[in-house]
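User: what does the whole thing look like in 3D?
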Amino acid sequence: MAANIPNDNLTIPASWRGMAPVLIAVGAVCVLISLGLFYFTGSEAKPDVGFRVFFHSYLANFMFCLSFCLGALFFVLVTHLVRASWASSIRRLSELLAFTISWWALLFIPILAMVLFTNSQALYAWNGGPGSDLPMIVQNKLSYLNPGFFAIRTLVYFAIWGITARIYFLLSRKQDDTGDTEISLKLQRWAGPAIMLFALALNFAAFDWMMSTDAAWFSTIYGVYVFAAGLLSFFAVMIILCNMLQNSGRIEKLVTVEHYQDMSKFQHGFIVFWAYIAFSQFLLYWYGNIPEETLWYKVRMTNGWQYVGLLLIVFHFAVPFLGTMSRHVRRNRGVMAGWAGLILVAHWLDMMFLILPNAAPVTPMLVLGHLICWIGMVSIFLALFLLRAGETPVVATKDPWLPESLAYQVGP
Amino acid sequence: MSDHAKPKKTPKPPKAHGWMAEYADDNQLLDAARKVKDSGYTRIDAFTPFAVHGIDEAIGIKPTALPWFTLCAGFAGLTVALTMEYWMNAVDYPYIISGKPYASWPAFIPVAFELTVLFSAFTTVFAMLGLNGLPRFSSPFFSNPKFDRTTDDRFFLWIGSSDKYFNSEKVQSLLTSTGALSVEEVREDDSPSDIPKPIIFAIIAGILVTLIPGAIVLNMRNAKSGESRLHVFFDMDFQPSRHTQTSTAMFADGRVQRPPVPGTVARGELGATDPYTLGYDPSQTVSTDSATAAAKLVSFQQDGEVAGDESKGAEASETPAVEPSETEPTDAEGVAAEEVTADPGAQPAADEAAPAAAAGVPNYAWLTELPVEANGELFELGRHKFEQHCALCHGYGGYGNGLVAQRAAELAQGYWLQPANLHDQAIEEQPVGRIYYTITHGKGKMGSYAASLTPEERWAVVAYVKALQRSQNAQPSDIPTRGDIAQ
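Assistant: Here's the predicted 3D structure for the full assembly of 899 residues, as structure tokens:
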């Protein structure tokens, strides 16, 4: 069986790996620049507004990167769960993406420290505690939204994701040496429970970290929204990643045009799913028209944020939906990488739209600072990915379903 | 007819449909298909028990046009849905639902989504059937029993006789050279193609049977019957709700119609009970008040026989200004009020209020104090509104000499009634609620200002009028004396 596997170059280019320290430095500098930019542009009347905007921007960009790593973890789990043989040749890359999650916990420390050791309301109004001037609807949530419990939950989320990602990556690596089919069966057996824990953790993390930036507001579909956005951006990242690796002469035969078509199909599906969830949330609140529910949208329909919302409708849904509909587009990896890039830009706007309106209106300075923070966070993400990947083969060549994955054809 | 036709039919050999070759596995089929295609044939088809990868390229199947049908149908569905919803909700039958605009695009989206999917799905299914030439009840291939194994373990390749390079012998030899298990000619089915008579009969019978329910309904709608009607929805035809003006044992007072819960205020009628919006206290205005009672009585007797007659008599003797033909309830109210208050036996106070009574103002329990706080802001608002709405006729000083009055005096038209001088003693003595009532309802030629001024603004104007009156009727005692100044 091993004879069928093409002898591709499976390691990430050394020149890429050498960039990791530079990327870390660039990331740190950019995040600090954005902090300074926000801090010194905070209005004199409200000196803390700079911190407010910075922490919101930091969280939005943090979630931008973490969301597709979580999407990667979900992809690993769900392809094991349904024994999706087609995904065998691209699963290792997802495992590597998911494997960075435990390091993302380190980047959450600034937020966690602010919540634990200060009463700052820069990011979470509920962090002021019972003594502060909070509306009754938030006061009533303080038994859940308090620093101690928040920190414990955060640790639990990262533990669930980090341990799951670690187990699935390390066992898959073990299979690289032994070729033991039992490992695949074992991973499949545990995918069900793991995916349940993953879903719970993702939902509550979205509630805790993101939704509670506007603690008075609530939406039960919010976690699903974040999940949809994360998985969509994951497929976009995968398309770009595979395209870049193939451009530099890696995995040329192991990832075929059929895989691109399937990833593009999933991306297309999740474009619709994201729009469906976003619209479901909007329709119910718009129709019910209850003040405590519509306030969140009110904030996002004023102060320039309404244009960001319109951009999302156009570039997070309509344009890529029609643009990636064709089979010919999906089977052209260069073109698909372009569309995936557009999806990632839209995803960045989406995370911005979810979090930043609570902090400030849209201004050129806000967008600039947020963009610099984004460059920093993405640099850090790339560095983490490259460090995690190292010389690991980016395709699990002993995966028992790899031959099936290579023989796979989508059909006309 | 057909009995006569049959003997004329001459048996002829079935029409050729092409050649088909049988293969043992899919690789042989693929090789053969490539070879046949390379030979230049285009009317080729393959029949396999399962989907064979690469067969499309091997026999040169062009990409299907089906997706375009789906895409166009999707756009058509979207357009139809949005147009339909817009036309229905915003043009043909504009109706406010849930306080939303007529054209509520978010509310249109779900239906637009559904119709997009519906149109796409149906079009895809039917276009697929159409592109495949379905439904077909028979195919020439079925005449060969070997072909049955195509659903089991055999693979068939066919070259059609309609191919422009088709030559029966060459095709046969080509197919034989591809290593086929067998190569056989496909012939059009020579069995009769007429639809069997029992099936036609069954279809006609089915159509007739489906007409029966409609026929029964039509018959019942047009025929008379002595039998009671069929109640399909019994609880809809016989509801437990009671008719109005009947009695029931369910409530202690036996009334079917329930009085509103104490304190209920009907929508839009908040002002009906509130002294603030009325200018008087309705709870203090007792019905023993003769003017009110008479007004109410007459207002209930629309085109009343007794009260109407009486008022007519009164008009004839004492109030010729009012047209006798006015029989509408509101007018009758005014007439009756006038009649009673103008009665010679009425108390002296009523005489003094005669002008008011003449305009149909009942004797209410007027508010004597402002129901709002009289501060500088209120006076300023009152002054502003007074100069805006009142001063045109009544004049800035309130003497009834506004610009309109001056112009009317210049024109010297006989029908012009001088606006009231607000410093007349009768008006000076009016309580604030009475002035408020005049602003609200108008008086004589003066129209109602309820539409122009909110209750708050009316009270502000009242406050300003009171201040104006005071300013124009200063007493010597208002002037501070030497002693006062010393203090």
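In plain terms: The radius of gyration of chain A is 22 Å. Chain A has a mean pLDDT of 91.
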